[in-house]
Known about the structure:
Layout: H1 2-18, H2 20-44, H3 46-75, H4 87-107, H5 110-119, H6 124-136, H7 138-149, H8 154-180, H9 187-218, H10 225-253, H11 261-286, H12 302-312, H13 316-350, H14 356-380, H15 387-403, H16 421-449, H17 458-487, H18 489-514, H19 520-532
Amino acid sequence: MASLCLLQQRGRKLVQEVGLEDVVAVASTAEQELRTSVFELLGSGHLLEAINGGFSLATISLSVSCLLIPVFLEASGCKTGGVLSSDRRALRVVWLGQWVLATIDMTILTPVSYDLVQQLGYGAVSSGFLLSAPQVLQPMGAILSRLITEGRSYAFLRRFIVSGLYLQALFTWSLVPVLHRCNAWSSEIVLGSTILLRSCGGMMLMIYGVPLSTMVYQYAASAEKPCLSIGLYLAMSLGVCLGPLVSSVLLTLGQYQPSQACNAGARAVQLMALLWSCETLLAAALLPQEIAGSNDDSHSRAQDRVDSQIVEELPIWLRKALVGLTILFSAGRSLGISAIEVATALLLESQYGWTPEKIGYALGAVFALTASAGLLVAMLRNTLLSEYVLMLSLAFFSIVGSLLFFDFGGGALQGVHHSSPLLLMTADMLVYACMFQLTAFMEGIATQAAVPDSTFSLENFIVVRNLAIQMPRALGPLMARWMIDAFGRNFYAGFMLVLMLVAVWAVCYAASRARKPSGPSATAVSSAAKEVS
């Protein structure tokens, strides 16, 4: 306190001797010099380099720790796995986490992809190749997985899945130095290596993802399978939302410039590699060493048991037809959704002049609304609305959404030559939300309709379903950007409308056969009600 009083006295004496105006002038000059120094520090890039260096150090350290902890525990004789009391719940947590990360991985480069390929001297079609790369080798991964894991024990499958996650993290990390060498290597090597490594990561996703999905459905009661499909597509909706959003946050924090697209992409990939490392640790901790699953339907909701009974009592030929129709529907949905992801980013940048950060935040908001809509549908299902009514309602709104892709022009707005970007994002939200949930409903029907010990078995359905999803998904970004470049936005919108009409026909057919509450289902409802009572 005495020191503070002495300092105040000296300050008053200084003001009296020098003069108040001179003191204010000196303080103002010092403030200006401080601001100038701060701006020079920011402009020189030293502060950003320090931040980027700290980010790299943190992600590498955490990733290595996540990957080494299970190894050390196994080497020391400690058993990993079985953290959760329910084996089936542990399987589902790892499975849903894997699909959240898989969709983040597919979309995290979307906001920066166009600038990245432009920095390398390429155009919009090349950005489509970059975004579709994870799907290119996924069919091969699904086939290899089926050949390797068929008839294997659970203990083998557990080690196989955890090892696959290790390789997934390593493939993702190997992409970081490639993007950092963007200015040192030739453009052909950088783009080719990026596409190759993303393709290998996508193949690895299928190699361990197929047996994981198969186990989740095998150890589930028949009436639970539609709920699992709904949970799967809610997880994918969440991942699609987080991918562009996380990317945009990194762009904002890194003071993004289009000339630094490769470095911005490298930061996004670093974060993705860390997330895969965390998923590896999660799988090692949660997946039990042995599993004793039960297919008991007794804890399922009454209406779910009714739906399951209706499907299982259908003629064998019709059950096979529903499985095949679901595969075709999934292929069409995958083609359309992957086209929307990249087409919207391209249109917002080329027609409306939006920056990559703004595009990422907009897509993140759209996909967040999509996930929220999916959660609402899951809550309404078989409570306030039957699954049949929900399927037909979602089919109708998907048609409405596809009409909004068309460019209606600026109308009376002076100087505006395109329809509002809000219409484009509304179309995205409607089509995304409806198609994701319809796919969940269709796959719920297919998993119940699968015929054991036949070509249309559950195991074969999961493999072929993955092929049907990933092969069109690899074509979607290329087709969308090629159609917009060559023929314009309205040609792309017409293609999407036709695709949605075909998908809606498939939904109406499946819903009328497997979910319509009339005819044979009345008997099933009656008998189920008696069982419950």
